[in-house]
Design goal:
The protein has about 650 residues and is an alpha+beta fold.
């Protein structure tokens, strides 16, 4: 004779009960058995009465695909996934291995998808508050079973063993499935082929709980991983089943298995990637170093907001790989894949030390927060790919490890390249010309990078002092009706002059061999730092004084960089200077097509056609806040005059 859980509890005390109570217990057991034998509406939960399958289907729908063990359930605990299927929770990452030709199966159960949304989870018809379990295979029916137990309610309110089915209608809810490849088979020959990608299969049908390559196409959705990442969203009214399947591997070409992260969410994709915008701005590079930066991290000048961003610390990491390299191919959209295979990365306290650094700064246009990345030890004349990835701040990751988007976001790769020659070097962190961050004419035999930056910064600062003396003669503090302009003031003039001065006194340098049509050849008669000279046949192609020297004599005399090309300042820097400053300073600008213009300025266009504070190689799509810059040259001693160098 098989005892129900209730009968077992009643029978347990028999071994220790006094004789007078023994008769009472036996009577209760007898009555309980009799009650169970008479219960005809309890379906599959009838204790000692078999129900034919056709009757079962007729009364309660098809048989559930796996049984419930109600006696094992504790309050608040829901059913378990069937064998061979891993149940996932909302916004919780799962890491798995998958071997070639095998498939890993997962389920996101409706009880988690619709958590907190079902009214039936909170009330029943007769017994007051209950906890709810939804059984698979019953469509839009919910099986309510009171899990409070006899200790929580009086005997008169305990549920009967026969559950009650309540039919309800659910509105579909979007489920976001995402996964990324963390490890992939490695090449074991000289092949340049990429390892094959794994695939995602999704089903919302109870009849296809293990979707995969062998499932009928009509019963599942399919999405192959692309560069180690996949995203797929479905509208769910019940459980969502999905699988990640690995293809067969060519053992002659590859060895090893796949490892991946997978997650589901009802809020947003846990892992994501951008396939339209790189997110990185390539500031500049020399033969061994490069500087890149994010766009502004905010568009507000609210001091409290800006300070909060600066205090939060870097939120991004940047990975670098050679454009033609094989290391990251196949995982270039995967955060965990890039973390494992990228030859170099810049992050806080990263493994590459001062060779790859990152920090927050307000330098550059707008004076707003942005994150900058500085790489060294790069190869000359090489093309690289930079992958920006959002990780969130460390405090945020500690507080909200399982959160929507917790798997990070990878942006489209940004391409950048290094120079061939050694006579252009990047300088940063200037004190006076604080927006200047690009390669300048250099000579490693005469200046270290720090000394070179100081040389150019001091030269600009000294020239600015002459301008200040001229501006001091203007009635800047006079009543409005006596000032030189009702729309401009001396502060506007000083700002415009500084931007122009730093751009014309500190040339933006490119290799002499560069094919940049917007650059101007300089200093062809001087030897390179290594002592070599240009052939006479090449020098003869660049007649005229503008090609024989640098913009400023001190560069040729003290730095001695040799031949190079200069990206000329933008013409609007000069126009802005004239608009903002008083006419008494006699600033004027040459016009396009004039000989003086062609040797001093360049028209702003697409890409890096001219130089200005904060200019970058790939400005298209940039959301950086920029002012209208201008350019003009001033006589070194007087600080005023026609820009003609």
């Amino acid at each position: 004779m098989q005892l129900s859980p209730r009968q077992s509890r009643l029978a347990a005390p028999l071994l220790t009960t006094p004789p007078l109570l023994l008769v009472f217990y036996l009577l209760v057991l007898f009555l309980d058995f009799a009650h169970a034998a008479e219960a005809t509406g309890s379906g599959i939960y009838s204790l000692n009465k078999l129900v034919p399958e056709d009757t079962l289907d007729e009364e309660h729908g098809p048989e559930p695909p796996y049984p419930f063990d109600f006696t094992a359930l504790e309050p608040g605990l829901v059913r378990r996934a069937p064998p061979g299927i891993t149940g996932l929770l909302n916004n919780v990452r799962e890491n798995r291995n998958v071997r070639p030709g095998e498939t890993e199966h997962f389920v996101f159960e409706a009880v988690h998808i619709f958590a907190g949304m079902d009214d039936d989870n909170n009330t029943s018809d007769d017994d007051g508050p209950t906890k709810s379990i939804q059984a698979r295979g019953y469509g839009n029916e919910t099986l309510l079973y009171n899990l409070n137990g006899p200790e929580e309610e009086p005997r008169s309110r305990r549920p009967s063993l026969a559950p009650v089915l309540h039919r309800r209608q659910r509105n579909p809810k979007t489920v976001y499935i995402s996964a990324t490849t963390c490890m992939q088979p490695q090449r074991n020959t000289n092949t340049s082929m990429d390892p094959p990608q794994i695939s995602l299969f999704v089903s919302t049908s109870e009849d296809n709980q293990k979707p995969g390559p062998d499932s009928p196409r009509s019963e599942r959705l399919f999405e192959a991983f692309d560069e180690g990442a996949v995203k797929l969203s479905v509208n769910a009214t019940g459980d969502v089943f999905f699988s990640i399947s690995a293809p067969m591997r060519n053992d002659e070409l590859f060895e090893g298995d796949w490892n991946f992260d997978v997650a589901v969410s009802t809020d947003a994709f846990f892992h994501s990637y951008e396939d339209t915008s790189g997110g990185l701005l390539w500031v500049d590079s020399d033969s061994s170093a490069a500087v890149l930066t994010t766009r502004n991290l905010t568009d507000t000048y609210d001091a409290e907001r800006v300070q909060k961003i600066m205090d939060s610390g870097p939120q991004y990491v940047m990975f670098v790989d050679n454009r033609d390299g094989l290391a990251t191919r196949g995982v270039r959209r995967s955060m965990c894949g890039l973390s494992r295979y990228a030859p170099m990365s810049a992050k806080v306290a990263g493994p590459f030390g001062d060779k790859a650094t990152t920090f927050l700064t307000t330098r550059g246009p707008g004076g707003l927060p942005k994150q900058q990345f500085h790489f060294t030890n790069l190869n000359p004349k090489s093309t690289y790919l930079g992958f920006l990835a959002y990780t969130g701040t460390e405090p945020l990751k500690r507080q909200l490890g399982n959160r929507p988007g917790g798997g990070g976001q990878v942006f489209q790769a940004t391409e950048f390249e290094t120079k061939e020659g050694d006579n252009c070097k990047i300088i940063t962190n200037l004190d006076f010309c604080n927006d200047t961050e690009y390669a300048v004419p250099a000579n490693d035999d005469r200046f270290t990078i720090a000394e070179l930056a100081q040389f150019y910064d001091d030269m600009a600062r000294d020239s600015y002092r002459y301008f200040e003396r001229q501006l001091a003669q203007v009635a800047c503090e006079a009543p409005p009706e006596q000032r030189y302009s009702l729309a401009r003031n001396c502060t506007d003039c000083a700002v415009a002059y500084k931007k122009w001065l730093c751009s014309v006194l500190i040339p933006r340098c490119e290799d002499f061999s560069s094919d940049n049509a917007f650059s101007l050849v300089r200093n062809v008669n001087q030897s390179f730092p290594n002592g070599t000279r240009l052939p006479d046949s090449v020098i003869s192609q660049f007649p005229g004084s503008k090609h024989q020297k640098s913009r400023h004599a001190r560069i040729d005399e003290e730095v001695q960089p040799g031949p190079y090309r200069e990206v000329l300042p933008c013409e609007d820097l000069c126009y802005d200077l004239v608009r903002n400053c008083p006419a008494s300073l006699q600033f004027s600008c040459p016009r396009p097509k004039q000989a003086m213009f062609n040797s001093s300025y360049q028209v702003r266009g697409d890409g890096l056609t001219c130089n200005f504070p904060g200019s970058v190689h790939n400005p298209s799509g940039s959301s950086m806040l920029t002012a209208s810059w201008t350019v003009f040259w001033v006589a070194t001693l007087a600080g005023i005059g026609m820009a003609s160098l």
